[in-house]
Amino acid sequence: MSTNSHPRFVSANTTRRNPFHKAFKHTFFYILLFCFANNSYSQLPDSMVIEASDIRFQKAIGKQTLFTSAPKHWVTDADIYKLPYKQTPGHYLPHDLPGWLVEQDCFLQFALKNSADTAISVCFIPGSYCRLITLFKAQIDDIPGTLTRLPDTLINDSRNAGVKRIHLQPHEEAVFFCRFNFVRTNVNSLIPRLIMDDYLKQWTTLLRERDGMLYVFTYTVSGVLLFMIFYSLAVYIQSRNKEFIFYAWYTFLTCSLLFLKSYLDTSANWFNYFYEEYLDFMIMTASVVVYQIFMRKFINSKEVYPLLDKILRYFNILLICASIVFSFVYFFTDWYIMLNIMENAIKQLFFVTGVVFIAYSIKKKNPLLNYLAAGNFSLIALSVISYIIILTGWKLVKNDPTSIFNRALFYYEFGLVLELGFFLSGLAFKNRRDIIERVKERERLKLENERKEFDKQMAVMAAKQEERNRISADMHDELGSGVTAIRLMSEIMKSRLKGDVVPELEKISNSANELLGKMNTIIWTMKSSNDTLESLIAYIRAHAIEYFDSTPIECKVQLPALIPQAEVSGEKRRNIFLSIKEALNNAMKHSQASQIQIIISTNDKLLMIKICDNGVGIDADKLRRFGNGLSNMRRRMESIDGSFKIESKIESEKNCVLTFEAPI
Fold first, then answer.
1. Peptide bond before 663: cis, by omega within 30 degrees of 0?
2. Is 244's pLDDT higher than 60?
3. Integer angstrom CA distances of residue 590 from 305, 554, 615, 618, 653
4. Mean pLDDT, residues 169-194 taken together
5. In this predicted model, what pLDDT tens digit does every residue of 120-137 receive, in sequence order?
6. Which one of 98, 175, 585, 650 is most buried, by most CB atoms within 10 A?
7. Buried b / exposed e across 312-347, counting CB within 10 Å, b at 16+?
8. Which residues, in sequence order, are CB contacts of 357 under 8 Å at separation 6+?
9. More confident residue, 493 or 116
């Protein structure tokens, strides 16, 4: 059938024929044939006789031609002249030809004479999309009599297979009868025409040049679709998204449909007839089925829009079943009216599918669906214009009948271009959305991995803290009590000696006191509840005051007004405290100071501790003498990314200033 009815759009309604009416008509036909059987031919008036020598290029002879029809295979060649011929209005244009006429054998009668002194050859064309054309010739004085079948003169052009050549001798006058069938399509026409033999090639060229702009536009659209085939295959190779295989098939089928329509136009060969009758509609239906499969996969309707997926799947099944029935009717019957009715019904199904998809997309308000719906709407709207032009012959450009804007196919192709543009816009939106979703997914996985790693580290830290707490508790309970017992027993022994000094016993007592102090420091360091800046400052203050409590050195500790809520690990607390302890020990032993001031200050990122004394200061010799202790303090502070520096000013009240800085 013809592609001028357009994919996904409803075609023209066809008059339904009652089988009883058809049978009655055939019976009536044979009654008429019997009545006219003896002498149905009557002499044609001179006005109906066509002068071949007057034809310059070509001439339409519809008003000088008689026409009739009969059921297929009911009339033999010998009885053709007996048929009841009658004069037609002149011609039937495409889409005006009655559907029932396509199912019958058609017959033409016309008279030709050659008044010239030389032989003339003319070419006869009964109309467009006519096949099985047979010409019979009879001399006017020979009717009724034997008809002579003209030989099928070969014309070396596949586009002119529907043309028959007639030779007229000088001063010859004859009557010609033509028997033919119409192709089962709605674009055939009955326009009898005589063309001079040497003008036939130019005539064919003029027919194609009439729609030259339409051919250029059609081939351009076909080229764009061909590019989309390669693009879809490239995307599939890169991403392995199966929907692009279906889109490549859709564009291939649509490209084939348009290209063959233009390339085969005006051709009168068997393949073009088969294409117009059957193949173009099958390609159209297959493209719609493949496009719907593509849409379902492209928008992931099975998971996201299950109702729409179900509707489109049922539509596909219905289209496939209808195509099978259509194929059966085409290959096993000679019906045209039934084929046309089925074609219209299937195209109405295309239309309903498009409307349902558009309505569903508007309801869902999804941007991707809206892009596809806009493309479907563009194609349907322009197909409506195309359909109106087919039905009414409406011409948008009145003063130029051959304008591309008067061609129905142009609007359908333009609708395809708009649909393609909206699809590409939807594809760009989908790609951008997929990229954003992939980035989000990567970020989510990254955060998830970081969270797992953090949880893992927290679990390790918790285990370490638990182990530290256990060890500190064991040290306090076991070692602490043992060291305390040693110190008490040494003190008891000293009291029993009643003033006698035993150096070893004194060393045991001092060692026990020192060991107890170091053990308390270790326990304080290991206990996780002390991992705060406030605990560190409080411990340093308590140790300094207690350390200088029974000495002649006056110790003052200046604390910050506000201590930040910051966490300080046990390792960092231990290094800071031991560095401060070492500094206080050096000041006690070597500074000869009477006053020591500890200034503690903090901000959000830094803890700074200054130890100032009014002693003798530190000179180069003392630096070398105490290099071990100072290097230990520097090493400890640097191990926690801190710093340590010394300022010695003999003439100042604060002769020595040690500054400790550590990040918090």
1. no
2. yes
3. 86, 15, 8, 9, 17
4. 91
5. 999 999 988 898 899 999
6. 175
7. beebbeebeebbeebeebbeeeebbbbbbbbbbebb
8. 295, 308, 312, 372, 373, 376
9. 116
